[in-house]
Structure formats: structure tokens, C-alpha cells
Amino acid sequence: MSAIQRFQFSLDISSDVYMAYYTGAAKYIHTTTTSGKTIKFPASALRKHLTHNGIHGFFEIEIGKNNKLLNIRKINTKPDSDGIWL
To answer: Are 56 and 12 in contact (CB under 8 A)?
Structure first.
């Protein structure tokens, strides 16, 4: 049995809103996964995904032993024809 847990979630954060995280005024992202679980992780983990439009898309987070954040990767990079990320 693997100790790594993976959860998928979507984010739609404007660049203005993310500035509160970037400057440290807000430290954590709270979101709900596709399975309905609420997760919290450091906002700094998303810096590599920040664009001038903010952070938008569908992501997968990997959590290891003792709830250690291992990785967050973007799964898709473009919205569908209706503008929906997933």
C-alpha cells in the first residue's frame, strides 16, 4: 500500500486575489477536491503555476507521510469550448 495520497481539484484565482497569498497576507489555500474532501496547503506551493491572469486549471496534489506536501502539478492547461477548466 502506497503512503502517497493524490487528490484532484480545480482552481480559478485571479492575479489580484493571489497577490494576498503572494505577499503573505494569506498563507493557505483551502479548496475541495473532486471527491468532496476539503484540503489546505501553503499558497506558496502554487507560485510556479502563477501567470499574469492568476492561477486557473485542474491540479493534482500529492501528499506523503504525516500529510507532507510532495508535489502539485497542473493536469490541464486550457479550458474547454465553454470556458470550463474541467
So the answer is: yes
Residues paired with 6 in a beta bridge: 62
Locate 25 and state its grid cell: 497576507
pLDDT at res. 47:
86
Average pLDDT, stretch 4-33?
A: 88
| Calpha distance 12→7 (Å, rounded) | 17
Amino acid at 81: S
Across-strand partners of 55? Answer: 13
Instruction: Let me know: does 63 contact 7? Beta carbons within 8 Å.
Output: yes
Residue 79 lies in a domain: no
Task: Decide if pLDDT at 73 tops 90.
Answer: yes
Would 39 be classed as within a structural domain? yes
* Structural domains counted in the chain: 1
Using the predicted structure, report yes or no on whether residue 1 has a pLDDT greater than 60: no
Full residue range of the structural domain in which residue 13 is found: 5-74
